[in-house]
Write a structure and sequence with these properties.
Number of helices: 12
Number of strands: 12
Helix content: 40-55%
Number of domains: 3
Distance between the termini: 78 Å
Radius of gyration: 26 Å
Oligomer: single chain
Shape: elongated
Strand content: 5-15%
Order of helices and strands: HHHHEHEHEHEEHEHEHEHEEHEE
Strand order of the largest sheet: 2-1-3-4-5-11
CATH topology of the largest domain: Rossmann fold
Largest sheet: 6 strands, parallel
Length: 360
């Protein structure tokens, strides 16, 4: 394997000049640059990236932290990250390095510590776990370049890409109300996630706007425990399905089935629909169903059909996050920005006007 010494000998220049050329520094004349470039090509020389990053104080790598890289849900987000890297208007080509924490706080802390020790120039942090707030604040206070995706920590003056979870949940609930439903339940997500609270708030705002009573027993949240192995990759989604199934089964047993349900995640809806079908009820004839996240790609995994849902602009979110990061790295003194993205209503005919009143 060729070394910088070999390149210098082939080009007839000093190793210092070769190093300056590779690192884009001044002091290398046009003719010398041509000779060095030709020598690099002839010898198929590959610069030592680590050594180069130490000289330039840049790795041209961007770290991205997510909880579950194996999830079908995350695919469009990753697509957005990759699109952003390929199309961001910058003078250098960046590479994205992904880490998968599986929702494990200690594992994520180790990953962030590793990445911020000179391995990446900046971090895109996806997720809104309230448990990780202290970790996120500590990262922000270190002045390390970060972009938060789906986490509106209002006291942090950093770049953020936010999705209108409150507005999307309000729209979904209002859709059910405008169809004529009044007996509406809400099946939420993990209560320790900020987006779960946002979607619950969107639901309650819509119900209050139209003066509709909220039944406490129709506000359902999955009880996640350590015994559920919550931190195992993919386990959380299966738990949403099981909790959706068991919660709806409970409402059936006590004869308190609503006419319509807004689900904070499609996965829970798939489980609840299974319970309804087992009881001889159908969607939307007996119960209207609308979800969030548009998990159509995962429906077959749960032997379910895609449902009417609020789609998140995840690809746009990933692209926007990378562009904000590159802009920050290329212009370190630029002011942080917050980009607010809207959800999209996807109608798959799982909601309808109420045909008859549920029992209870």
């Amino acid at each position: 394997m060729a070394t910088i010494k070999d390149v210098a000998a082939r080009a007839g220049v000093s190793q210092t000049l070769v190093s300056r050329y590779i690192n884009g520094l001044v002091g290398v004349g046009p003719e010398t640059s041509v000779r060095i470039a030709e020598a690099i090509k002839e010898l198929n020389y590959r610069p030592n990236i680590l050594a180069r990053s130490l000289v330039q104080r840049h790795t041209y790598c961007i770290g991205v932290t997510v909880d579950d890289l194996s999830s079908t849900f995350i695919v469009p987000l990753i697509s957005g990250f990759e699109y952003g890297v390929s199309h961001a208007p910058a003078s250098h080509e960046y590479t994205v390095i992904y880490t998968n924490s599986c929702g494990d706080y200690e594992k994520k802390k180790r990953q962030l510590n590793f990445l911020t020790q000179g391995h990446v120039d900046g971090l895109v942090v996806y997720g809104s776990s309230i448990v990780e707030d202290a970790l996120t604040r500590r990262l922000a206070s270190s002045q390390f370049p970060i972009v938060l995706v789906e986490n509106d920590l209002t006291d942090l003056h950093v770049n953020k890409v936010l999705i209108d979870n409150v507005g999307g949940a309000f729209f979904a609930t209002e859709h059910l109300i405008k169809l004529g439903h009044r007996r509406i339940a809400h099946f939420g997500g993990d209560i320790n996630m900020r987006i779960t609270l946002d979607r619950m708030n969107g639901f309650t705002h819509a119900m209050q706007k139209y003066g509709i009573h909220i039944e406490p027993e129709w506000m359902v949240f999955p009880a996640m425990t350590e015994q559920d192995n919550w931190h195992q990759s993919g386990m959380a989604r299966s738990l949403f399905y099981e909790r959706g199934y068991s919660s709806m089964k409970h409402l059936l047993e006590i004869n308190r089935v609503p006419n319509a349900v807004f689900f904070a995640t499609d996965i829970a809806a798939f489980g609840a629909i299974r319970a309804l079908n087992e009881a001889g009820l159908s969607v939307p004839e007996d119960v209207s169903v609308i979800g969030f996240d548009d998990e159509s790609a995962a429906a077959s995994l749960y032997d379910a059909k895609p449902i009417t849902s609020m789609r998140q602009p995840l690809q746009e979110a990933g692209d926007t996050a990378i562009r904000l990061m590159v802009q920050m790295l290329e212009n370190p003194h630029s002011s942080p920005e917050s980009k607010f993205l809207q959800t999209q209503f996807i109608d798959r005919k799982t909601t309808a006007t109420p045909h008859h009143t549920a029992s209870g």
